[in-house]
Amino acid sequence: AANAAAAAARLGARARLVSRVGTDLEGERILAELSALGVDTTGVERVPGLSSSVSAVLVEASGERLLVNHADPALFEEAPAPDPPVPAGIGAVLVDGRWPRAAVAALEAARMRGIPGLADLDHGMAEPWASRLLEAASHLGFSRDGLERWTGELDPARGLARIAARSPAALAVTLGARGVLSSEAGGLVHLPAFPVRAVDTLGAGDTFHG
C-alpha cells in the first residue's frame, strides 16, 4: 500500500497512507521517504516498543528480485482497525493484506460510501477476514504468486475463476513480463506488457495498483 500510495502521488493524486511503524530509525526513514514522495503520512501511527517492518531484497542482473520481509505480528496482524478506518474526503481506497482488520474495515467503509475499494492481495489472509475482504472489495488485484496462495491454482485463469465464485469484485492478476489478466464482461482479457529493460522489479505490481 505504501508503494502504491507513492506511485499515485507521483502521478498527481493526493495520497494518504494509513499504517503503523515503530518508533525506531527504520520507521523514521520510512516516513521521511514517503513524505518526500508527496504521500500524506499523518495517518501513520508510531507504536512505541515495536520494530518497523523491514525487508531484505536481492536483485538479479535481469531485474528480477527475491524479497524476505520481517514484521512483528503485533504491528499489523494482531492490531485493531483504526477509527475511522477511512478518513473523510477520500475518493478511493487501496488496501493490502498485511493488516487484516484495517483492510476489511476500510473496504467495508468504502462500499458503504459508494467509492472504489481495491485490495492488493499478494499475501494470504486467515478467516474470517479473507471472506469478509472478498465480499467487501469492488476490485481485487493479485500477483501471480498471491493468486496461487489464495486458491491453490497454478493456472491464473482457473485461479480467477475460483475467486469469482466467492466475490462480486472486478478481478485482475499481474503476470510479470506476460502482462495482466483481468475479468471483463463475464470473460477474461489479457493485456500484454510493453517491452522494457528491467532494472529492478521490486514494487512493479504495487506501482501498477497505484
Protein model, in words:
By secondary structure, the protein is an alpha/beta fold. It is built from seven helices and ten strands. A six-stranded mixed β-sheet has the order 5-6-7-8-9-10. Strands 1-2 form a two-stranded parallel sheet. A two-stranded antiparallel ribbon has the order 3-4. Helix 3 links the parallel strand 5 and strand 6.
SS summary, helix count: 7
Query: What is the CA–CA distance across the termini?
Result: 8 Å
| H-E string | HEHEEEEHEHEHHEEEH
Q: How much is the radius of gyration in Å?
A: 17 Å
Beta strand % = 25-35%
| Helical amount | 25-40%
Using the alpha-carbon principal axes, give the shape. Answer: globular
Q: Unreliable stretches, pLDDT < 50, 5 or more residues?
A: none
Task: Sum up the structure in keywords.
210 residues; alpha/beta; 6-stranded mixed sheet; 7 helices; globular
Quick structural summary:
The chain has 210 residues and is α/β, with parallel strands linked by helices. 31% of the residues lie in helices and 27% in strands.
Helices and strands in order:
Elements lengths: L1 H9 L5 E7 L2 H12 L3 E8 L6 E6 L5 E6 L22 E4 L3 H14 L3 E5 L7 H8 L2 E5 H8 L4 H9 L5 E5 L5 E5 L2 E5 L12 H6 L1
